[in-house]
Specification:
alpha+beta; D-Maltodextrin-Binding Protein, domain 2; 11-stranded mixed β-sheet; 4-stranded antiparallel β-sheet; 24% helix
């Protein structure tokens, strides 16, 4: 399954760039360069008061470029209050479980649930939008010239699910809880020096260095706002199905191994109208064959992560729509740097069946990974130096190092059909050069327990999907590869002070000079490529299946596989 890092970083987050166009495979996506950043303002003893944000220009094609301080569009008027007339139940068949529903620490597939229960101050818009961000719980925002002081004006008339009023103190307390816990994606708030409640509907952020807080606060993780009572609770309370956000749905019941039932929050600030869904079931369906059967029969309305060879047949079914969108997700195999010598890691990189995987297992819908960061995210490497499958060279590398009779373990999640197929193809190739690859399909909990143990006794290869908290190179590089005493998602167990220093400098530079930061991020990635810390397999295409009578679904790569049920209608 797709998993997230639980670390704290020096993330200074740079300007976001997004490939436009809601349709087409990842092969259509070209990595944009970040815009040249404005020179940093002269430092002053204290931040200047914020200046009003200017009206943003429409985003150019094919890249949506963030203005320094966007003036968001006005929110649509709310619909009538009250739960909508019954439109039936919407069923989301999820291939991945929700292991942590604490909005401060959740950092895995829980966002599929949490994005409908909790809200953030801003929301990143999908490709092709005129503006980068939309208002969420904030209706407008502004910053000083060097982006070290931000003011957010909050939405009036909003209540939490437990009836408490939404206000600036609730924002401060929610984010402070996340910062204090230091779990999940809490690293996104590292630039924050302090938060100041001005009045009930105004909050200021003072930063230690320039950062795009409007973008930070649109994050898939860690930026959720919860009720004052929720702030005082622990993770066990949330994982028992409790919680109080401001979103359109509440958690009515939770069975971690089966489903989550969401019901409409009657007093949602956006209001309700007939035709919206008053109840949603998020059903855990880890077997892709079963997921396909459910969506074909109408027992499920939405799913994703099906084998790519089934999509052509699904496209002929008039009751279904196969939706392709831009992706910011990649797939890689982390190589255990404690167990595996540099020569063995090099041989594994040389032996991987890159073209076969992309063209056959993924039906030509995936793209070759250029490195640790997907090519749809700024600062990624270009494709001028892609590794090629070279079994003769791989065998020679092992022979020169005196390596023989090598047996390696390949760990992947049960139900991940493509990862299993990749393992089978790779296993056959490795066998031709005298290497035995043992495939280990395990549940998420089981492989996690092994990976978190002694690296010398852990797996040799750990496959993983990754997508960003919000669109920044730091999320990939820091969470997965920066040195840690006790690695969490850094399951290459890699430690390199040179890489760490370069990454930290890139972070610190990205707030004022994105061109320079992009070059440093590329240099940092090249270190990882040269050290063979992982096999960077592919950039994963974003393909989902939805019943054709469902209207209103728009995929958004900044929130991988999220369906905002409030937007949907059944025709």
């Amino acid at each position: 399954m797709k998993t997230r890092a639980l670390t704290v970083s020096l993330a200074v987050l740079a300007a976001l760039l997004l490939v436009a166009g809601a349709c087409g495979s990842d092969e259509d996506a070209v990595a944009p360069e970040p815009p040249a950043a404005a020179p940093a303002a002269e430092p002053a003893p204290a931040p200047e008061p914020p200046a009003p944000a200017s009206e943003p220009a429409p985003a150019p094609e094919p890249v949506a470029e963030p203005p320094a301080a966007p003036e968001p569009a006005a929110a649509p008027p709310p619909a009538a209050a009250g739960v909508p007339a019954d439109a039936g139940r919407f069923v989301y068949a999820s291939p991945f479980p929700w292991v942590d529903l604490d909005p401060s620490s959740a950092f895995s597939a829980e966002h599929l649930v949490l994005q409908n229960v909790y809200e953030t101050l801003t929301r990143f818009n999908p490709p092709g939008s005129a503006e980068l961000l939309s208002p969420g719980l904030a209706t407008s925002w502004e910053s000083n010239e060097d982006a070290t002081f931000w003011t957010f004006n909050l939405r009036d008339g909003v209540t939490f699910h437990d009836g408490a009023p939404f206000n600036a103190e609730a924002v401060r307390a929610s984010l402070q809880r996340t910062i204090d816990l230091g779990l999940g994606a809490a690293f996104i708030f590292l630039p924050v020096e302090s938060m100041e409640v001005v009045d009930d509907l105004t909050i200021n952020f003072r930063l230690l260095w320039p950062a795009p807080m409007d973008l930070v606060l649109s994050s898939t993780f860690a930026a959720y706002i919860m009720s004052p009572d929720s702030v005082t609770q622990d993770a066990t309370w949330f994982n028992d199905g409790n919680g109080a956000g401001t979103g359109p749905y509440t958690i009515a019941s939770l069975s971690p191994s089966e489903n989550v039932i969401l019901t409409a929050y009657e007093d949602y600030w956006g209001g309700w109208s007939d035709g919206q869904f008053s109840e949603v079931e998020m059903r855990l369906v880890e077997d892709p064959v079963l997921a396909e059967q459910l969506v074909r029969s109408g027992d499920a309305d939405f799913t994703f992560n099906l084998p790519f060879d089934v999509y052509p047949a699904l496209e002929t079914d008039t009751d279904l729509s196969v939706v392709r969108g831009v992706s910011m997700t990649n797939l890689f195999g982390m190589l255990n740097n404690v167990r595996l010598s540099p020569e063995v890691r090099e041989a594994l990189v040389l032996s991987f069946p890159y073209e076969d995987v992309v063209n056959n297992l993924y039906g030509g819908e995936a793209t070759r990974a250029t490195g640790p960061i997907p090519r749809t995210i700024w600062g990624s490497l270009d494709d001028s130096n892609l590794p090629q499958t070279d079994l003769a060279r791989a065998a020679a590398t092992l022979e020169a190092a005196g390596v023989s009779d090598l047996t390696l373990t390949y760990s992947y999640d049960v139900g991940e059909v493509e990862q299993e197929q990749i393992g089978e193809v790779w296993k056959a190739l490795l066998a031709t050069i005298g290497v035995e690859l043992v495939l280990e399909p395990l549940t998420w909990d089981a492989r996690w327990a092994i990976a978190q143990g002694d690296p010398a006794e852990a797996q040799d290869i750990y496959t993983m999907f990754w997508y960003p908290s919000y669109v920044t190179p730091t999320d990939f590089l820091y969470s997965l590869y920066r040195s840690e005493e006790l690695p969490f998602f850094g399951l290459s167990y890699y430690k390199n002070p040179e890489f760490d220093a370069l990454l930290d400098t890139a972070d610190a530079t990205s707030g004022t000079d994105t061109d320079a930061a992009a070059e440093m991020f590329r240099q940092a990635q090249q270190i990882l490529v040269d050290d063979d810390v992982a096999v960077f397999m592919l950039d994963v295409p974003a393909v989902s299946v939805i019943r054709s009578d469902i209207e209103g679904y728009v995929p958004n790569p900044a929130y991988a596989n999220v369906v905002w049920f409030y937007d949907l209608r059944r025709s």
